[in-house]
Specification:
The chain is mainly beta and 84 residues long. The chain is built from 1 helix and 5 strands, in the order ββαβββ.
């Protein structure tokens, strides 16, 4: 994975504030490093629903990346997201 579609969401209204826009994964990693929470979202029966949060993984800059951090009853991964 090299790019994501992301933006800012108003979670009270469940609607986009900005985005979605295409960005490099490094932008997500920078946001996570700055303390921002980044969540996946999925479409289920025509409704947008939140998925697992994202986290950074890897031992060095060469192997660093992102992956989902699902809860105990949520097994969705990045592979479950739409591809573009």
């Amino acid at each position: 994975m090299t790019h994501v579609r992301w933006g800012i969401v108003d979670t009270d209204r469940n609607e986009w504030v900005t985005g979605p826009a295409e960005a490099e994964v490094i932008d997500v990693m920078d946001a996570l490093a700055s303390g921002d929470e980044v969540w996946t979202i999925y479409t289920v029966h025509g409704q947008t629903v939140p998925g697992p949060r994202l986290r950074t993984v890897g031992e060095s800059e060469e192997t660093e990346g992102i992956e989902t951090h699902p809860g105990p009853n949520d097994h969705r991964t990045l592979r479950d997201l739409p591809r573009f």
